[in-house]
Design goal:
Radius of gyration: 13 Å
Number of helices: 5
Order of helices and strands: HHHEHEHEE
Distance between the termini: 28 Å
Strand order of the largest sheet: 1-2-3-4
Length: about 110
């Protein structure tokens, strides 16, 4: 996905390059500090956001698991490029080819 996003001009940092062994709880503050939208396939992040009330810069959960990795990357890249400002500060989900934005995220 990183390569697809970069080819579309999106500034991307992969967590493996920043902090390879960082647990989920530590990934969110890193993204917040760098003011980066966090793109993930991990549903556990939603628990950290909603149950524990962690602040975040914006999270995009990709749930279109029936797509190939290339199709997921292309769909995610299109959504980010078209709706980036709306994604910031919100918890959003891509599922079944549709975007749902949960407004009222926890941005400082």
């Amino acid at each position: 996905m990183k390569h697809v996003l970069e080819s579309m001009g999106v500034d991307v940092a992969h967590m493996l390059e920043i902090e390879a062994s960082a647990p989920d709880r530590d990934v969110i503050p890193i993204a917040l500090h760098q003011d980066r939208l966090l793109v993930t396939y991990d549903r556990r992040l939603s628990a950290l956001i909603f149950v524990e009330g962690l602040q975040h810069p914006g999270i995009l959960l990709v749930r279109d698991l029936d797509l190939t990795p290339e199709e997921q990357a292309a769909l995610t890249a299109r959504v980010i490029c078209a709706r980036y400002n709306e994604l910031q500060g919100n918890f959003s989900t891509i599922s079944n080819g549709r975007l749902r934005i949960n407004r009222g995220g926890r941005r400082p």
